[in-house]
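Box 3.1 A note on notation
Throughout this textbook, protein chains are presented in two layers. The first layer is the amino acid sequence; the second is a token string describing backbone geometry. Keep the layers aligned when reading.
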Amino acid sequence: MLITTGYPSHRFQGVALLSNLPLEPNPYLLLTLHCIIGIIAALLARRKGFDFRRWLIIGLIGGTPALIVALVVKPKL
């Protein structure tokens, strides 16, 4: 179902699609940011010599705390 707002449809199609989501857009934005932070944590850990896949899982579950740990952990020798 497409909701029209009276504005040109080519400019606001994304708004119409967001209105069909089961939740407000804010939880989706927070979940996206959480995942991005988790990916950044995994990339930092990889640069320090740790397993990327393991840290990706940790980062996607942990988010900000995983990023903090990835910043603090000492590099592997």
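The two ends are 57 Å apart (CA to CA). Residues 23-72 form one domain.
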